[in-house]
Design goal:
The structure holds two protein chains of two kinds. Chain A is an all-alpha fold. Chain A contains four helices and no strands. In chain B, α3 crosses α4 and α6 crosses α9. Chain B is globular, with a radius of gyration of 18 Å. The chains are: A mainly alpha, B mainly alpha.
Amino acid sequence: MKKLDNIEKTNPFKTPEAYFDKLSERALNSIKNDTEIKTIPFSKILFRAAAIIILVITSITVTYYFTNSEKEKESKTNIAEISNLENYLDEASIINKIAEDSVVANEYFENNFNDFQNDTTEYLVENMDYISLLAEL
Amino acid sequence: MEYSDQKLVQLFRDEHRKEEAFTLIVNKYKEKIYWHIRKLVILHDDTDDILQNVFVRIWKGLENFREDSQLYTWVYRIATNEALTFLNSKKKRFFLPIVDYENQLANSLESDAYFNGDEIQLKLQKAILTLPEKQRLVFNMKYFDEMKYEDMSEILDTSVGALKASYHHATKKIEKFFETD
């Protein structure tokens, strides 16, 4: 087995002539170029701003359009529901409904009227002014 | 007069001396960094591109350099990361598995105008190119640059034990390559 120690340790690569001499100057140029590339010109900023504004307006318009059409659909459905309701209510069912309501009202009135009548009689008996009554008679 | 790394960082933070400090840093490390990258990516043109990126990264990062580590290891770490990123992007770009790209590099060495090694040197480079990237990195840093394991540990963020094992395996593989090829 060939040992690495037996191989002469030399650098087998080379560079173009005077390569290292101008390296620092080139490095500074690369940095300046890099900074220039990173500086975005005003026209580009303007273009990007315009694009963003157009995007916002478009999205607002689209959202408005879809929201409105949803609302329109909803109101149309309501109207449809009401007209369906009218179809289901016939005259007989309306009369029945009124009659039921009257029965309930009458029962209430009768019960409460009797109580009212008793209360009035009781009051008159207790607070009767007999002298004035006799004088009038 | 050569400034210490600490002094260079201080100078860089002075807005009026920023470029001067940067030039001094580049001059101090350019050759070491160049050879570090070159041994990994093999071709001069690729090395040059990576080196320019490394300098840009140094310029951008030095302002916030916290001095937790030495400037020397920080610069090396940037160079290593840039070189590895470059190799990975190159492999992805050509949809080539790792072995193929390294084979391609090994073959290109023979016709490379900037390679002037003899037959044994060529064979050694081909053997190194058979190693996995990280092992290749460890081997180059130890064998050619004779770097301390402690420094390598800081640059590669790997334990000294793991680096020693990696170097040992790399050496064995290379010796085996010489035996079988």
